[in-house]
Write a structure and sequence with these properties.
Serine Threonine Protein Phosphatase 5, Tetratricopeptide repeat; mainly alpha; 107 residues
Protein backbone atom coordinates (compact mmCIF):
# COMPACT_ATOMS: atom_id res chain seq x y z
CA UNK A 1 0.00 0.00 0.00
CA UNK A 2 1.49 3.33 -1.03
CA UNK A 3 1.64 6.25 1.31
CA UNK A 4 -0.81 8.88 0.07
CA UNK A 5 0.46 11.58 2.40
CA UNK A 6 4.04 12.79 2.70
CA UNK A 7 5.73 12.03 5.98
CA UNK A 8 6.58 15.68 6.50
CA UNK A 9 4.25 18.42 5.37
CA UNK A 10 5.59 20.89 2.86
CA UNK A 11 5.76 24.18 4.69
CA UNK A 12 7.10 27.54 3.62
CA UNK A 13 9.68 27.36 6.41
CA UNK A 14 10.88 23.99 5.12
CA UNK A 15 11.31 25.35 1.58
CA UNK A 16 13.04 28.46 2.91
CA UNK A 17 15.52 26.39 4.93
CA UNK A 18 16.16 24.12 1.95
CA UNK A 19 16.79 27.25 -0.11
CA UNK A 20 19.41 28.38 2.38
CA UNK A 21 21.05 24.96 2.20
CA UNK A 22 21.03 25.15 -1.62
CA UNK A 23 22.83 28.50 -1.46
CA UNK A 24 25.43 27.05 0.89
CA UNK A 25 25.96 24.24 -1.63
CA UNK A 26 26.30 26.73 -4.50
CA UNK A 27 23.04 25.61 -6.12
CA UNK A 28 21.62 29.06 -6.78
CA UNK A 29 18.98 28.12 -9.36
CA UNK A 30 17.68 25.46 -6.99
CA UNK A 31 17.55 28.07 -4.21
CA UNK A 32 15.45 30.33 -6.46
CA UNK A 33 12.95 27.52 -7.01
CA UNK A 34 12.78 26.68 -3.31
CA UNK A 35 12.31 30.32 -2.27
CA UNK A 36 9.57 30.68 -4.89
CA UNK A 37 7.80 27.65 -3.39
CA UNK A 38 8.05 29.20 0.08
CA UNK A 39 6.52 32.40 -1.32
CA UNK A 40 3.69 30.48 -2.99
CA UNK A 41 2.78 28.97 0.38
CA UNK A 42 3.24 32.19 2.35
CA UNK A 43 3.23 35.27 0.10
CA UNK A 44 3.09 37.68 3.02
CA UNK A 45 6.56 37.34 4.52
CA UNK A 46 9.04 39.99 3.42
CA UNK A 47 12.02 37.84 4.45
CA UNK A 48 11.23 35.32 1.71
CA UNK A 49 11.20 38.03 -0.96
CA UNK A 50 14.36 39.62 0.43
CA UNK A 51 16.17 36.28 0.31
CA UNK A 52 14.91 35.52 -3.19
CA UNK A 53 16.06 38.95 -4.34
CA UNK A 54 19.53 38.29 -2.91
CA UNK A 55 19.87 35.08 -4.92
CA UNK A 56 18.55 36.74 -8.08
CA UNK A 57 21.27 39.38 -7.70
CA UNK A 58 23.91 36.65 -7.45
CA UNK A 59 22.75 35.20 -10.78
CA UNK A 60 22.43 38.70 -12.27
CA UNK A 61 18.68 38.65 -12.88
CA UNK A 62 18.38 42.37 -12.26
CA UNK A 63 14.76 42.98 -13.30
CA UNK A 64 13.47 40.02 -11.31
CA UNK A 65 15.52 41.13 -8.31
CA UNK A 66 14.07 44.63 -8.63
CA UNK A 67 10.46 43.47 -8.53
CA UNK A 68 11.24 41.00 -5.75
CA UNK A 69 12.82 43.67 -3.54
CA UNK A 70 9.90 45.99 -4.30
CA UNK A 71 7.52 43.32 -3.04
CA UNK A 72 9.61 42.90 0.11
CA UNK A 73 9.36 46.66 0.67
CA UNK A 74 5.62 46.59 0.04
CA UNK A 75 5.28 44.01 2.81
CA UNK A 76 7.76 45.66 5.18
CA UNK A 77 8.22 49.34 4.24
CA UNK A 78 10.62 49.97 7.13
CA UNK A 79 13.20 47.41 5.94
CA UNK A 80 16.41 49.37 5.45
CA UNK A 81 18.06 46.26 4.02
CA UNK A 82 15.43 45.84 1.29
CA UNK A 83 15.64 49.54 0.37
CA UNK A 84 19.44 49.35 0.28
CA UNK A 85 19.52 46.21 -1.85
CA UNK A 86 16.88 47.60 -4.21
CA UNK A 87 18.98 50.73 -4.61
CA UNK A 88 22.06 48.66 -5.48
CA UNK A 89 20.11 46.74 -8.14
CA UNK A 90 18.65 49.93 -9.59
CA UNK A 91 22.15 51.40 -9.73
CA UNK A 92 23.37 48.31 -11.64
CA UNK A 93 20.62 48.97 -14.17
CA UNK A 94 21.60 52.63 -14.58
CA UNK A 95 18.38 53.80 -12.92
CA UNK A 96 20.25 56.32 -10.81
CA UNK A 97 17.41 58.63 -9.76
CA UNK A 98 15.42 55.65 -8.48
CA UNK A 99 18.53 54.26 -6.81
CA UNK A 100 19.13 57.53 -4.96
CA UNK A 101 15.51 57.59 -3.80
CA UNK A 102 15.77 54.03 -2.55
CA UNK A 103 19.10 54.68 -0.81
CA UNK A 104 17.50 57.64 0.96
CA UNK A 105 14.71 55.36 2.20
CA UNK A 106 17.33 53.02 3.62
CA UNK A 107 18.71 55.74 5.89
Amino acid sequence: MSNLFPLTPETPTQYFQEGQQAIAAGELEKAVTLYQKAIQLNPNLALYYQSLGDVLVQIEKWEEATTTYQKAIELKPTSALSHHNLAKVLEKQGRLDEAIASFSQAI
